[in-house]
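3.2 Worked example (two chains)
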Amino acid sequence: MSENDVLANQKHILENQKAILANQDAIKGNQHAIKETQKTIVENQGSIKKNQESLDLILKNQQQILALLKK
């Protein structure tokens, strides 16, 4: 292998390492975004549970109203 080939391979390796570092930075950014999204989901679960309880109560009341109307 000639010296030029070795230098070309080294240049290619350095370019790949640069790309890997850029990808790692992107991954870190994405992990941060994922963490924030998960935090928001957890925070929203409380509201979702309360809303579901309210919907369940509405359904129960509607069923009671229908039962009374059938009498």
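3.2.1 Second chain
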Amino acid sequence: MLQTKRGKAIWIIVSVVCVVLVLIFGYFYFNYSRDNSEKNSGGQELVNPVKGLSDEEAIVQFNESFVFYLLASIKAYNLHAPPLSSDNPKIGMIVGEDRYNAEVIDGGIRIGRGAIDGGDIIIKTTKEEGVKMLRDRNYISKSFKDGKSEVELVAGKIKLAAKGYIKIYEELS
């Protein structure tokens, strides 16, 4: 009689563990395996803010929309809060003398002016480099590889990995 109770208990434990593993796998698959570009742009095509502007005009007009497009170009919308956490990815951006901040919430990128508290990374570039990156997405990685732009890791590597920064960092460096 003791063996059958122990056998039932083991069967129940194994079943519960299997269900939990399936739920965890499903959570990661549905939340992190897809490209959130449609969610980020509201299903509309993103319009490049430098389109129709000379380099000089784009440099003078550089603002939050330029930062948004640049972050969308590096697929920052794929960043996410770590599992079971509400610690959203936060990016500081220094463009010339201007400071911007970005937070990725459920695949959407929110941009603001000023420094960010508790940021994960800081991207530094010039307005000239920013405009070049906006004109040619292939130039983005070149700018970082040539040292004309840089990424400073503020948060620890485990935290950055949990939020999905590894892929972006590898593409930039």
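3.3 Remarks
Residues 1-33 form one domain.
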